[in-house]
């Protein structure tokens, strides 16, 4: 669990930045070169590369170099881990909401019976 917790921390930290989220969003449409990914951002390429390295370190993307072009692709395995964690949280909160709704309904029924 600690291993997954550390990985989830890294992934959520990576996704906290709007530039990195935009890169992930763009890669959702298919692989792209780093120069193509950097075009919409007003920053120097070395600064942009820091974002790419962090995404690569967290395992959210993979890069491959062919000649002088480095191409990035999404790594879906880590997104499944995030989706699993979010799904578990949703299940917990839906159960809590259902228990609260049952409590409120039962309380209202008792109040109506006593009147």
From TrEMBL:
Molecular function terms, GO-annotated: DNA binding
HTH arsR-type domain segment(s): 1-94
ATP-binding among keywords: no
InterPro entries in the cross-refs: ArsR-like_HTH (IPR011991), HTH_ArsR_DNA-bd_dom (IPR001845), WH-like_DNA-bd_sf (IPR036388), WH_DNA-bd_sf (IPR036390)
Keywords for the protein's UniProt record, in alphabetical order: DNA-binding
KW Transcription regulation (keyword) present: no
Name recorded for this polypeptide: DNA-binding transcriptional ArsR family regulator
Biological classification of the source: Bacteria, Pseudomonadati, Pseudomonadota, Alphaproteobacteria, Hyphomicrobiales
